[in-house]
Design goal:
alpha+beta; globular; binds flavin-adenine dinucleotide; about 400 residues; three-stranded mixed sheet
């Protein structure tokens, strides 16, 4: 249904000159893959609220799953700027496809690599990297979203195994996942990460329907009814909220790049449309009001590109702190959301159709604004960092 993908990049300040040659090659290869595999089909899948499962193998082949994971475990051993570029290019296509890759890489592979045993790394990482297995990350519960520390999902030590009971909600990839990394508390309220495998008795993953956002991404629940899990499936090297929060840091970093991809696509679409659409005898791009919109879009995109590039440098050096990542995630998603709305207006009535990607990006970003820490929560993180005062409670 969608028009041909004519995107040709968006780099007003030559920020990409700050990248390495390898970074630019990665951009080119992921962009080409998105144009060939995602753009022609994504609108129909989003309209039908269905996840294009056939893309999983290709996502594995282009290295979108866990690109920073070492090669010996099936990853690419790439740096964080490469990871960001991959997320940007995927989200330029669709936030749902980027979400699938983010969850697999940052929320499932990262904790298994960082906190798992050598046996767990060898068992799961290569299969997750290739896409042979899909994973999901279960932190949010029906009554505990922004405050995950309040979770009530529990596991009990039963000798050789643990017994897990509880429910997780809003879980990306849940309906298609082969494994789920679930965060749960023991009798002493200590949070641990536990790997569940599809087929374990008492474990189900019902799909969440009727979403108006991220329609091409599969979302579901994780329902655990006295699931018996071998103790060898517990991540041995992390305890407490630090475990899930460190995964979210990695995923939020990816989102800070990814959301700019959606913004770039909307700017590019709106600019092309404005130059071609004639009203009152001239292209609408010639009217000052439309130029204001377009000029502000490219200004915000440029500022965000510089911010995430610097964040990438800090992350590569191990110096990016969680508050900086929060600021970048919040800013990128905010500017991208505003850009989708302005672009939608520039396209007039055509902007609400699936003929263009703009309205799909707009609706997708509503989820991106909320997940991995809401817009408000990231502001509170910045507020706490600069004042030293906690305004959460
Ligand atoms: C499509 C989608 C996919 C998702 N995928 C996953 C996933 O894969 N895994 C996973 O674990 N979770 C996932 N989530 C869940 C997501 O992370 C939560 O929705 C998010 O953390 C917010 O939680 P909540 O929806 O319960 O909102 P709430 O926490 O109830 O927040 C509601 C509102 O209150 C505000 N608020 C909350 N606390 C405060 C405060 N202290 N001060 C000021 N304002 C506050 C929030 O900012 C928000 O505006 C997903 C969500 C969506 C929509």
């Amino acid at each position: 249904m969608s028009s041909k993908d004519l995107f040709s990049g968006c780099d007003y300040f030559q920020v990409e000159e700050l990248w390495t040659e390898e970074h630019r090659l990665i951009r080119d290869s992921i962009r080409a893959w998105v144009k060939k595999e995602v753009s022609p089909i994504i609108e129909d899948y989003a309209q039908n609220s269905s996840f294009p499962k056939q893309l999983i193998k290709g996502l594995g082949e282009i290295g979108a799953f866990g690109p920073t994971i070492p090669v010996k475990y099936g990853g690419q051993g790439l740096d964080y700027i490469s990871y960001g570029i991959i997320m940007q290019e995927l989200e330029r296509g669709d936030s749902g496809i980027r979400s699938t890759a983010s969850v697999q890489g940052s929320l499932v592979m990262y904790p298994i690599y960082e906190y798992g045993s050598e046996e767990q790394r060898n068992k799961y990482l290569p299969k997750l990297a290739s896409g042979e297995w899909m994973g999901c990350f279960g932190l949010t519960e029906p009554d505990h979203g922004s405050n995950p520390g309040g979770m009530i999902t529990r596991y009990k030590d039963q000798g050789d195994f643990v017994e897990l009971t509880g429910a997780k909600m809003w879980i990306s990839n849940a309906p298609i996942a082969d494994i789920a990394l679930v965060w749960a508390k023991d009798e002493n309220d200590i949070i641990r990460g536990i790997i569940l495998e599809r087929g374990m008795e008492g474990f189900t993953t019902p799909e969440t329907h009727h979403k108006w956002s991220l329609r091409a991404s599969a979302t579901g629940e994780l329902v655990m009814d006295h699931v018996k899990v071998p103790k060898s499936n517990i991540l041995p090297n992390v305890k407490g909220l630090k475990g899930p929060l460190s995964c979210l840091n990695s995923a939020r970093f990816g989102i800070s790049w990814g959301a700019i991809g959606a913004a770039m696509d909307c700017y590019d679409t709106a600019l092309r449309y404005a130059k071609q659409r004639i009203q009152f005898g001239k292209p609408i791009a010639g009217f000052q009001l439309q130029q204001k919109k377009l000029a502000e879009m490219i200004t915000e995109i440029t500022k965000a590109q510089l911010m995430v590039w610097r964040l990438g440098v800090l992350k590569n050096e191990g110096r990016a702190n969680p508050s900086q990542i929060s600021m970048a995630k919040r800013n990128s998603v905010e500017i991208a959301s505003q850009i989708t709305r302005e672009a939608r207006q520039i396209l007039g009535g055509m902007g609400i159709t699936g003929e263009y990607s703009v309205m799909r990006h707009m609706m997708n970003l509503e989820s991106v604004l909320t997940y991995e820490g809401t817009h408000d929560i990231h502001l509170l993180i910045t507020g706490m960092d600069i004042t030293g005062l906690d305004a959460f409670k």
